[in-house]
Amino acid sequence: MNATTALLSLRGVSRTFTTRRALLGRRLDVVHAVNDVSLDIAAGETLGIVGESGSGKSTLGRVALRLIEPDRGTIEFDGRDLLGADGRDLRRERQRMTVIFQDPYTSLDPRWTVERLVGEPLRIAGGTSPADQRDRVVEALRRVGLEPDVLTRRPRGFSGGQRQRIVIARALVTRPKLVFCDEPVSALDVSTRARVLGLLRELQVETGLAYLFVSHDLGVVEAVSDRIAVMYLGSIVEVGGAETVAQRYGHPYTAALVSASPAPDPLDRGAKRRIVLRGDPPSPITPPSGCAFHPRCPLAQPVCAVRKPPLRADPDGHAVACHRTAEDRRLRGADLLDLLRGEPTMNLLTPEGTPT
Length: 356
Ligand SMILES: Nc1ncnc2c1ncn2[C@@H]1O[C@H](COP(=O)(O)OP(=O)(O)OP(=O)(O)O)[C@@H](O)[C@H]1O
Ligand code: SF4
Ligand SMILES: [Mg+2]
What we know:
Layout: E1 6-20, E2 28-42, E3 46-50, H1 57-64, E4 72-77, E5 80-81, H2 87-96, E6 97-100, H3 114-125, H4 130-143, H5 160-172, E7 178-182, H6 190-207, E8 210-215, H7 218-224, E9 227-232, E10 235-241, H8 242-247, H9 252-260, E11 274-276, E12 312-313, E13 319-320, H10 333-341, E14 347-349
Helix pairs in contact: 3-4, 3-5, 4-5, 5-6, 9-10
The structure holds adenosine-5'-triphosphate (ATP), iron/sulfur cluster and magnesium ion.
The site of iron/sulfur cluster has 12 residues, from loops.
């Protein structure tokens, strides 16, 4: 996909945070939350972003919608330079790019009625009469399966799933083209989760919305995404069609995510042992040199500590950033997993979680 067909297009986007090490300390740490990320989202598409906690998923989504500013890079939304927009233009773009956050308990002010909560983005945007606002709120509520009798109620009396429906209605009320869903079902129980994911899919079919869908759970991301990007320490290490990334993955880190995912591995050929990566993710304050995954990667070679591997794409758009596997198409999916499982440097666990 090129920038002219993409709804949202990021090129070379980076974002760091500077934090003080101690309360009164002088020492400043620089956190490389998002590091030189390029990606496209087409209209009506779901791009899933998956990675461990701290890999930069939320920061990437926030930067992509310009809720926070990038340090470097360019962002185009619907053919326009998002970073050049200001004032009224930026407010207009913000209506067309909205957000659903993880926790429906903290993202709804308990003192407000449903009508005020869902209508707030329209009031902020201006330009609609109170009567129009009410009609749009009712329309958004209906879309998420709530009747107008909830208008005067406050969030307190609603279940987690209903609250998340209210949050989704609020994200839809401005009729956006893109919604950034940041772990939208992580706080919900399993059956509610399935219903909310089904609702998001229905809304997409009805309205042609695009989603930037972030989760640490590969199973959830695979269930909703057309394409998946895998993040590790601020960088995208693999991206491609959802089925390809989930089943014909080519990056050792993606293989570890698939192996650890509770969803059954469809290509698991009877070798049921999970891969467990050694150690915790390194700190984004001092990311490892070369390939940031090298201290944990059983396939690492000397070059991996020195040179950062670029994302290399197959003709079908499946791209992998790895010195060893990117160009060797035999090292995909179950074959890569088998290779990793055979590595003596891997910790291996049985399905019951007992080290072998
Ligand atoms: N406002 C901030 N100030 C300082 N550091 C931040 C800030 N926001 C994020 N970070 C750091 O940037 C890195 C990426 O954080 P981010 O929240 O984007 O990760 P994430 O992948 O969304 O993680 P999670 O799955 O836990 O939500 C982390 O190391 C985090 O501590
Ligand atoms: S580049 Fe090297 S360290 Fe990084 S994932 Fe590939 S083999 Fe492992
Ligand atoms: Mg997050």
